[in-house]
Structures are given as C-alpha cells and as structure tokens.
TrEMBL record:
Residues 4-239 form the ABC transporter domain. GO terms for molecular function: ATP binding; ATP hydrolysis activity; ATPase-coupled transmembrane transporter activity. It is found in: Cell membrane. GO terms for biological process: cobalt ion transport. PROSITE patterns: ABC_TRANSPORTER_1, ABC_TRANSPORTER_2. It comes from Methanocaldococcus bathoardescens. This is ABC transporter ATP-binding protein. One of its GO terms (cellular component) is ATP-binding cassette (ABC) transporter complex. Belongs to the ABC transporter superfamily.
Amino acid sequence: MYMIETKDLYFRYPDGTEVLKGINFKVKKGEMVSILGPNGVGKSTLFLHFNGILRPTKGEVLIKGKPIKYDKKGLIEVRKTVGLVFQNPDDQIFAPTVKEDVAFGPLNLGLPKDEVERRVREALKAVGMEGFENKPPHHLSGGQKKRVAIAGILAMQPEVIVLDEPTSGLDPVGASKIMKLLYDLNKKGMTIIISTHDVDLVPVYADKVYIMYNGKILKEGTPKEVFSDVETIRKANLRLPRVAHLIEILNKEDNIPIKWGFTIREVRRNLAEYLKEKC
Ligand SMILES: Nc1ncnc2c1ncn2[C@@H]1O[C@H](COP(=O)(O)OP(=O)(O)OP(=O)(O)O)[C@@H](O)[C@H]1O
C-alpha cells in the first residue's frame, strides 16, 4: 500500500489550461521523494491534488489505498494524513501572531489547550523559531515565514508532509537547516515529498526522484538511476549536480576515467580510489 498514489491523473484549470497529463505517482511509507522540473511544468498543481485542494479532471488520487472522498468529512481525514506546505508562505500564514498561526491547525483538530501549546512549542523549536511566538508574521523575513509555515504543518503531526520548494528564497545555511530538519523527520518515520530546483541537494537527501516535464513524468527512480540518464535531465531543462558535471567533463574532455558520483561524498570516494590506483 502506498501513502499517496495517483492513477492516470489529468487536470485542466477552468481557463482551459491542461496542466497534468496522465501522472502516475507513488510514495511508500517512510520514503523521501523529490519532484524535479523546470518552472510551470505542474509540480504545485500536482501537490494541490495530494490533499484534495484540487480535484482531478480525470484519474484518481488514493491516500493509504483509498480514493479521496471530496466531501467535508473525507477532506478532513485527508488533511489529517497529508500536510501541505505551500510554496509561498503568505498563502498559508494569516493569524496575528506566529504562535496563533501555528496553533490554528491543532486547535481545529479539537485538541486540548495543553496539547496544542506543547505542539506549538515543539514545532517552533524544530524549525528554529523559538522566541518569535508573539511576533506578527508580516514582520518576519521570507525565510522565517517559510519556517513558520512548516511549523504550522508539523504541529498537525501528519503522516506525510508535502513541501512545495521548501528551500527557495532561503540563504544556503537556512536551506541546509531545513533539509536537515526534513531528513531528521524522515529518519523518525515521516514520509516526505518535496519539489525543488536544487539538484545538488536531491541526491544527498532523496530516496526517489521524479522528473516532471510538460505535465508528465519523464523519469522516476533512485537519484543514481535518474541522474545517470543525462539525456533526459537535459531534455527536461534541468542540470546535473555540480559534482557529477565535473566528473562528466573529466571523463569526456580530459579522458580521466573517474567513476560517476552525485554527491560530494561519492565523488570524493571515487576520486580517492582513482588516485590511489594511479599512484
Ligand atoms: N489558477 C490557474 N489557472 C490557470 N492556469 C494556472 C493556474 N495556476 C497555475 N496555472 C498554470 O499551470 C501551469 C503549471 O503551474 P504550476 O504552478 O503547477 O507549475 P510548477 O511546476 O509548480 O512551477 P514553478 O516551478 O514555477 O513553481 C503553468 O502554466 C501555470 O501558468
């Protein structure tokens, strides 16, 4: 059974734009999945189907093996299981203070006050935003707002967390911190789906990668399988991780046959092996 599965999913916006054209996507419990694709290919549109905000024009979305029911009760159930962090935190944050914003979801679940307070405290600590409880969200920086938006979803304790470009607009340290937080949550068993343009981070964190292009899935597999298919990566207007690009150039242009790798750790190991054999 998959946590989320889409079967031959099509979606057309009311103005006639057909954005999703037969998407088959699956995520297992405990996986960390990245969706990569250039601007406008439909990543956000797909994510809005994962918790029932959008309804397919054709095809279906299953949560833990059951098709989403688009009535009030069905949607509440889905949103308890799947938490979605929007690309733009301003679409998500609306309460007068950070604390109230993060508390909004748990309060709506009807949890006792003590439990809500505990969840708010823990969620703000997890994203490194303790001390900001009483600040109005519109006084926060873009990166801080992003963390508060993530805290709001964490406080709901969903089984799956879906994040639309969680590192966009963050400085390098902020981006690494968010990815480390997601990695730690995943190691504790949370299923995580992210969309990103950051191809350097994907092989470090993802178990599985989907390449989206023009409303379709062009390729899926482990980071190694996906990034080894250089032709598809370039066809989808993406690029290789920098370290893999360096190996490609060394292989092709300098005739130095170092084994491919997609993270700094892998490339370092392959380079060290090559140098040991040479010396
Ligand atoms: N409400 C809407 N009505 C009509 N078309 C829309 C609407 N929202 C998005 N689109 C169009 O759907 C397409 C896919 O948009 P979407 O935001 O899903 O792409 P994306 O892959 O998430 O892009 P990005 O990487 O830039 O965030 C785009 O062509 C966009 O213009």
